[in-house]
Specification:
Number of strands: 8
Shape: globular
Order of helices and strands: HHHHHHHHHHHEEHEHEHEHEHEEH
Largest sheet: 5 strands, mixed
Distance between the termini: 38 Å
Oligomer: single chain
Helix content: 40-55%
Radius of gyration: 27 Å
Strand order of the largest sheet: 6-5-4-7-8
Number of domains: 3
């Protein structure tokens, strides 16, 4: 699935809703009705795929705040990074609420205004993700933020004429800014290089689908156009149901969205798992590259007298098939992708002890094994280790492997002794540990590298339950 498929499916759903509205009450402006349903359904879909796993969005927001801290005002961004879970829950719940509110036509003025502000915020994030590949300057960030704030002001005036004038003025300023960005070397400092992007994935659809940074940025630009049209024509947005019913639906819809997010953060694992470590997946297989990428190295050479440029392959250069008397200067090297290949899905998982990489040996165990995952022992819920120790004692009698994986912060031995954890602790990077399970700690049952089951620390099984369901049947 890609962004075009998502737009297509949302458009079909919006067309169906608009058709029903047309048959029932003949809205005066069918285009605005379609955009009302399109934007509403899009926000509900985008919010839902993040709401099943708000911690994933929290980690992504933390990554953004850390990137912003490199640009300046570090104490401010570090403070926000510590509140990233709160921001993620609030943002996702609000996204679901305003999407639903727009579909039912609840308070169109307020709803379209909030959606407009949210989309501008998303545009800033996705724009930063993509455009940082051009080595954007701090001046660019400041001016871009100012332009977005100017566009945000369109949401506030009550008079349509004032909103229209603000929109025209904002578009004019945007055009000037884009021209300056294009022709001024003070804003874009280098040619686009994907590896230079500060954040490589915006997390717009959680782990459901990973889009290229430029896809997410262009997607938001398209939504910006749709939403500004809605904002300037909110009087044509037609409600569904009476005012009392709409108010009730909006209240309970927002409450359900918030409770759903809270459940998936604090009570259990995500109800739908889009991650590569979901139950049933073979981690060993996902770590294997299916087909390598094929690259062609090309050199651009120039004749300094005539300024003529010509591309030569790597083989031509090595074999001295380039006439150096004619093409005497190398301008740049271009790496062309002939075949993107099929890369490994899991590339950052390395489980180690003090001396060796144990990933393959641990995942190749033909028997059941249990892995405790704690991405941070300093933030983990230590009380859960009493239950985990009891499970470890039972598995030890059966000769099954039981181990923990965490980040090596230099305090692992102290933690083990304090919690009487008599099983080995291995080390891995924080990112794959956070991806494996949204619980600190969490428990994963493996067999031959396949994820058999996972448990949040609030719902750990007993050894007897594990033995009855799995081990006694092996």
């Amino acid at each position: 699935m890609n962004v075009y498929t998502i737009f297509g499916l949302v458009a079909v759903a919006a067309f169906a809703l608009a058709l029903i509205r047309f048959v029932v009450n003949r809205p005066p402006n069918i285009l605005i009705t379609f955009l009302q349903d399109f934007v509403g359904v899009f926000f509900m879909f985008s919010g839902f795929v993040k709401a099943v796993d708000p911690l994933g969005t929290s980690y992504k927001m933390h990554e953004y705040f850390e990137a912003f801290a490199q640009e300046g005002f570090r104490p401010f961004w570090e403070y926000l990074a510590n509140c990233s879970t709160f921001f993620a829950i609030a943002m996702i719940a609000l996204e679901l609420l305003v999407g639903f509110a727009l579909v039912i036509g609840w308070k169109p003025r307020l709803t379209t205004g909030i959606i407009w502000l949210l989309t501008l915020f998303f545009t800033f994030l996705t724009g930063y993700t993509y455009l940082s590949g051009y080595c954007i300057s701090k001046l660019f960030l400041v001016v871009a933020a100012a332009v977005l704030l100017l566009f945000a002001s369109v949401a506030f005036p009550a008079k349509t004429t004032t909103r229209n004038n603000l929109t025209f003025f904002s578009v004019g300023i945007l055009i000037v800014f884009l021209l300056l960005s294009k022709f001024s070397g003070h804003l874009f400092m280098c040619e686009f290089t994907e590896s230079k992007m500060k954040v490589t994935d915006c997390g717009c659809f959680g782990d459901f689908i990973k889009l290229k940074p430029w896809e997410t940025f262009y997607k938001d630009l398209i939504l910006d156009v749709f939403i500004i049209i809605l904002l300037l024509n909110e009087k044509h947005i037609r409600p569904v149901f009476g005012a009392a019913v709409r108010n009730g639906l909006a209240f309970f819809g927002g409450l359900i969205a918030l409770l759903f997010c809270l459940y998936n953060v604090y009570s259990n694992e995500p109800v739908i798992d889009f991650r590569p470590y979901k139950i049933g997946n073979d981690i060993r297989d996902l770590r294997i590259e299916k087909r390598p990428v094929k690259m062609q190295m090309t050199f651009v050479m120039m004749n300094t007298k005539t300024k003529e440029q010509k591309e030569f392959s790597y083989e031509d250069v090595i074999a001295n098939r380039v006439d150096r008397n004619v093409y005497d200067t190398q301008i740049k090297r271009i790496d062309k992708i002939l075949d993107p290949g099929i890369p490994a899905i899991i590339t950052n998982l390395h489980i180690e002890d003090e001396d060796n990489d144990l990933t393959d040996s641990l995942l190749s165990n033909p028997n059941y094994s249990l892995m405790v995952v704690a991405y941070s022992l300093g933030k983990t819920h230590e009380s859960a280790f009493n239950e985990l120790n009891a499970i470890a004692a039972g598995t030890d009698k059966l000769g099954l492997k039981f181990f923990a994986v965490t980040v090596n912060d230099g305090k692992v031995d102290e933690f083990r002794h304090r919690n009487q954890a008599a099983y080995p602790f291995y080390y891995a990077d924080e990112t794959p540990l956070k991806t494996m399970i949204r619980s600190n700690p969490g428990l994963i049952l493996l067999k031959n590298g396949v994820v058999i089951n996972k448990w949040h620390y609030r719902h750990l099984p007993t050894f007897d339950e594990l033995n009855q369901k799995y081990f006694s049947k092996k």
